[in-house]
Design goal:
Layout lengths: L1 E6 H8 L3 H7 L5 E6 L3 E6 L9 H11 L11 E10 L9 E8 L5 H17 L7 E7 L7 E6 L4 E2 L8 E2 H7 L1 H6 L9 E5 L5 E4 L3 E2 L12 E7 L2 H17 L3 E7 L2 E3 L5 E6 H8 L5 H10 L3 E4 L4 E6 L9 H12 L19 H15 L3 E2 L5 E2 L1 H6 L22 E2 L4 H10 L7 E11 L2 E11 L5 H14 L5 E4 L5 E11 L2 E9 L1 H6 L6 E7 L19
Parallel strand pairs: 4-7, 4-14, 19-22
Antiparallel strand pairs: 1-3, 2-3, 5-13, 5-14, 6-13, 7-10, 8-9, 10-11, 11-12, 14-15, 16-18, 17-18, 20-21, 22-23, 23-27, 24-25, 25-26, 26-27
Helix pairs in contact: 1-3, 3-7, 4-7, 9-10, 11-14
Length: 551
């Protein structure tokens, strides 16, 4: 979730209310106060309310919630005469473009900081790290329309933001901090997205960096907004939120014609909702008039449509309104969470521990009894840790992330043992012996199930220690198993064994192979074991899920 910094002085100016009232009431609109400082407040908002990711959006909501200014804000838009063309060559690269002109901007340092923070928060909440949407804010007076959004050769150069010399687009990806951060979004393409003006000057290299030419400062009076991306709905949501935030700060919005389409409209959407359904869901008494008043406080346009329905106009910045119940949630916020009566539910249920949890708990008890300490490794890992370091062939059933945020977290774990080896590596400066275990979910072939693994590192760790621990674990779990020679390459040949149940290999134990120890930068022997808990009697298997234990 996004944590937004709200400067008291700026927020007080926008709302007309004091900081004490803001601090007291802001949690009631669905926010958590992270910290209260002398000159600002850090507040966390849910990802479904990106319109609140700026002081301007918060001020708009607070004025309504406190009854200072109710009803839907009306945003007037006039044409600017400015046009934008889009290169067909961007169709497979970054095809969507949204734009607007923002006039009569009066920005002080606090306003600039608020709007830049909004831009970055939207990159996270809507843009998915700029992959889906990237936002550019430019000093319009520094460039000349019409503007073009083109697919540019990679050797094109310009001066990127915060630099004082020209760089090619390829150089920006390797030498500019933002280029290194976001190169993954465009580096696979033969051409790169670029926004240029009538004189072929570069405004932006989306989704990487703007040009120094159009830097926004306190002297900026007119702004060109561009939002590029791969999803038109998300792009226009970002345009609407930014334009309405600037409007709250006193600016005027003008349209831009993009390939014959004028945007933005900033027009509301309309829904018809049931008063009776809302009252039933919330458990409160509502009349059409009362519900209309509550919605007005949440900055909706609302009027009764007969005796049992409300016609609701949803502001353009409320992209979170996807269902009638989203509107009912706002009715509850306006009603006041503190005003709901606490009542016991009309139905009661008796819970019991799930069998998978019971079996996992039993495995934990055994390992703790053997002197092992429980670890909770990350769910995400990578091929190097899970397979390469362990000398194992990657499982074809590995679940891979489509858009990983780093090279260290690219796949979902299929085993716990490699992650415990990584844990030993991280703690190799600690005194020995170290005996660690983990019990947790793994995912393979789209099936989620639980495994247990354990490692013991010290100068005397050997096959006998691993065998003894595996024997105790299987006996205490009432697992009828046999042991056979293993071929697992993570263990030393002749010092490894497979745990077999109903002719299926369900686990392995033994002494870790020296090349594996070297891969994890470990200097002492490691005795280890791993067991698939689906082999334990009573473990419930999902329909279609393979069961190594034959159950």
């Amino acid at each position: 979730m996004a944590v937004i910094t709200l400067a008291y002085r700026y927020l007080e100016r926008l709302t007309g209310i004091g900081r004490e009232t803001i601090i007291e009431r802001i949690p009631m609109i669905g926010a958590d106060i992270e910290r209260i400082e002398e000159d600002h407040l850090d507040v966390e908002f849910f990802p479904d309310r990106p319109d609140l990711y700026s002081a301007e959006g918060v001020a708009r909501a607070m004025r309504g919630f406190l009854g200072i200014e109710e009803g839907m804000p009306v945003y007037s838009v006039r044409p600017s005469g400015i046009t934008f063309s889009v290169d067909p060559g961007l169709a497979d690269i970054r095809p969507c473009l949204g734009s607007a002109v923002i006039r009569n901007v009066d920005l002080d340092e606090e306003a600039i900081e608020s709007l830049m923070s909004l831009q970055e928060a939207l990159h996270w909440a809507i843009g998915r790290g700029r992959g889906k949407v990237a936002i550019g804010i430019h000093d319009l007076d520094a460039v000349t329309p019409p503007f073009r959004y083109i697919a540019s050769p990679r050797d094109r150069s310009f001066v990127p933001l915060d630099f004082d010399h020209e760089m090619t687009l390829d150089e920006i990806l390797t030498d500019h901090p933002k280029g290194r951060d976001y190169a993954r979004l465009v580096e696979r393409f033969q051409r790169f997205p670029l926004i240029i003006d009538a004189y072929d000057r570069v405004l932006s290299f989306p989704p990487i960096i703007n040009g120094e030419l159009t830097r926004v400062t306190t002297a900026t009076e007119n702004i060109l907004l561009d939002c590029t991306g791969t999803d038109r709905g998300a792009v226009m949501t970002a345009v609407n939120i930014i334009c309405t935030a600037f409007t709250e700060a006193g600016a005027a919005i003008e349209t831009v014609t993009v390939e014959g389409e004028e945007m933005p409209t900033l027009a509301p959407a309309e829904r018809i909702v049931s008063v009776e359904e809302c009252a039933s869901l919330l458990g409160i008494s509502l009349s059409p008039e009362y519900m209309t008043d509550l919605l007005a406080r949440m900055r909706f346009g609302a009027e009764a449509d007969g005796d049992s329905r409300i016609r609701v106009l949803v502001p353009c910045y409320r992209a979170d309104i996807l269902h009638d119940w989203d509107i009912f949630e706002d009715v509850a916020i306006a009603y006041g969470f503190e005003n709901f009566d606490a009542v016991l539910p009309t139905t009661s249920t008796i819970a019991e521990e799930h069998l998978t949890t019971t079996i996992a708990g039993a495995a934990r008890s055994v390992m703790v009894g053997l002197g092992y300490i429980e670890m909770i490794p990350f769910t995400l890992t990578n091929d190097r840790v899970l397979y390469e370091n362990m000398q194992r062939v990657p499982s074809p059933g590995t679940l891979r992330l489509l858009h990983p945020i780093s090279e260290e977290q690219t796949i979902v774990r299929t085993d716990l043992l490699p992650l415990l080896m990584e844990m030993l590596q991280a703690n190799k400066h600690r005194e020995l012996p170290q005996r660690l275990f983990a019990v947790g979910d793994v995912v393979e072939d789209c099936a989620t199930y639980r495994r247990v693994a354990a490692v013991s590192i010290h100068p005397g760790a050997d096959f006998s220690e691993a065998y003894a621990a595996a024997d105790v674990l299987c006996r205490e779990l009432s697992l009828p198993c046999t042991v056979a020679e293993s071929t697992d390459p993570a263990f030393i040949d002749g010092r490894r064994g497979d745990i077999i149940v109903s002719d299926r290999i369900v686990g392995v134990f033994g002494e870790i192979h020296p090349p594996v120890l070297k891969a994890f930068d470990l200097e002492h022997p490691v005795a280890a074991l791993a067991l698939d808990l689906r082999a334990v009697q009573g473990y419930p298997a999902l329909p279609g899920t393979p069961s190594p234990g034959g159950r």
